[in-house]
Amino acid sequence: MLHRARLLRELESISSQLFVDLSSELSLARDAWDKAVQDPELQIKLSLLDLSWPAPSWQGSLNTSIPIAPCNTPYQLLAVDGSQIYPDKHQGTSCFLINIGTVELQYGTGKKGSVLQSHPYVFADKIPELEGQSASSVDVVNCKREELELSDGVTYAKTMQETSQAPLLFLSDGSLLFWHLEAKDQPLKRYFLDRYCSSLMACKDRGLWIAGYMSLPRHKELLSIVKAVASGFKTTGMQSSSLDRLSDTALGYFFLPAGTRSTVFTSNHPLVRLYPPDVAPCFFYFNVGVEIVRIEVPRYIAHDEIALNKMCGIMLDQVQKGTGFPVGLAEAHEQAVVRGADREFFYYLIDKLGLTHKRMLSMSQKVRKKRSIPV
Length: 375
Fold this sequence. Notes:
Elements: H1 4-13, H2 15-18, H3 23-37, H4 42-47, E1 57-58, E2 66-67, E3 75-85, E4 96-107, E5 114-123, H5 138-163, E6 168-173, H6 186-205, E7 209-214, H7 221-230, H8 248-252, E8 260-261, E9 265-266, E10 281-287, E11 292-298, H9 299-302, H10 305-321, H11 327-336, H12 340-356, H13 365-371
Parallel strand pairs: 3-6, 6-7
Antiparallel strand pairs: 1-9, 2-8, 3-4, 4-5, 7-11, 8-10, 9-10, 10-11
């Protein structure tokens, strides 16, 4: 049981760390940003630096602000999200569950307004293709969930495209630049990246609009530009920068009014080079009114100005309908989420299946104690 009075005292003791005044950092960042946007040789100077986090590249003006209006014409939205039950040794089984939530929304197309569903996938302790890798690890479960979110979304999008000519946006909650693979062993990285990219290539082949939507992003790629300018393009001055507590969204408020998006940036992170060129992820920032979000799209979409603005119009309409967050993604999360009761039911079914096959799971005493605590 949580001791609430003690919790309050603990929070009060670290309140100065929770609520930080960033006004001096923002002032310094603003000065550096203003210098950056006025420097015609900025990208050349950045390319000569050995930065710990590579600065992105872009076309046109750094502080471009493109107005976006909410979509008011018929469109289709597909949103996908996933959740999981990780393997639990205390339950006596190493199998795991991944639940994929899918939401189809139709606006003015004449089709049924919404279709909400979920699809559970259950895996034993080994994924055959990953021989030698620990399939019961949290990392592998997360990677597999990402794979299923993309592949299920592509499969569902195909049926939507076949039954309506209205514009269709496949919206994913999270990044299309799969950072979680960066530190993984090469076989694991290659295995999942190939599958992710296969889904992205399927999107390209069908001309499907796909975007990764990130609320409250913590990325610092634009901040790398500001830190370089603030240090006079001396990398030694960037290592202990006073700007480290800021993120790209803080800079976005310098030039993005509500209802506008930035120019498209190309990430120069080494991970991007592992993608097929046509689906390498690009990104931009979008002020949807309540916050600045990061949107990632494959390269085949990134430089199609008309498509990008229509996609943004759909996203803005979704945010307004969802009072701050895309309604499709919020509903997909509700379809995907696995709650405590679902977890208990999952293990109940495993127990029941064991009885049918005259096999018993060897659960730990810890779990047995939780299920029956004597008074």
